[in-house]
Amino acid sequence: MKSINAINTSQVVNILLAICVLLLILKLSNNPKDDMSQKNNTLETIHQRKSVRSYTDEVVSQEQLETLVKAAMAAPTAVNKQPWAFIAIREREVLDKLGNGLPYAKMLKKASAAIIVCGDLNKALEGWEQEFWIQDCSAASQNILLAAQSMGLGAVWTAAYPAEDRMQTVKETLNLPEHIIPLNVIPIGYPTGIEKPKDKWKPGNLHWDKW
Ligand SMILES: Cc1cc2nc3c(=O)[nH]c(=O)nc-3n(C[C@H](O)[C@H](O)[C@H](O)COP(=O)(O)O)c2cc1C
Fold first, then answer.
1. Does residue 199 lie within any of the structural domains?
2. Going by CA atoms, what residue is nearest to atom 10 of ligand 1?
3. Nearest CA to 155 among 185, 116, 183, 188?
4. pTM, whole model, 2 decimals?
5. For strand 84-89 and strand 113-120, is the pairing parallel, antiparallel, or unpaired?
6. CA 139–ligand 1 middle distance (angstroms)
7. Is residue 136 included in any domain, yes or no?
């Protein structure tokens, strides 16, 4: 009885070992880079992002805003100049004042927070290269939008630069010094869920190897 038990146990161990080796071989031969069926959270966030202009009453916290600005500051910049400054707003009075003054950012009056992405000309490159600040701050802005999407928040890029009147409204409302140029105002809140991502994939806009 004892020896039969011993044989059974060793057989079971052998079978388990064989299964482990098989699983290991399968895992090693399965390169995740080639497996498009695997979940890719980054691509999902990119494709789920949409401009969100309607929000619930739930409040966005200071920590959440800091997380968003950290994501912004991770963006690439020309010559790594990081020629930017960010203004995070949670005060109702300031959000309303901006919402009243900016005709294309009225949703600020419903948002519980906003981030203003600004170029800092004192940190920017000089001469013809100065305008790289616009691209640098745009990359930072897109990071904010994607980070917001990934955190279950909703946001929308509303333009300040290059509209002189809108820049003036932001400068006056926030008391910005001369060398700080507001690129945009990004209202942020919890989405009501009415906005959906748009499918913008147009194969005709992609050219392979030459025009
Ligand atoms: C440079 C720029 C300026 C924009 N300005 C505004 C704006 O002033 N107000 C607004 O509601 N949306 C604004 N948007 C958002 C666009 O309307 C939106 O991205 C576009 O309709 C595509 O929709 P989606 O973001 O949901 O994909 C702006 C977007 C960009 C990139």
1. no
2. 158
3. 188
4. 0.86
5. antiparallel
6. 15
7. yes
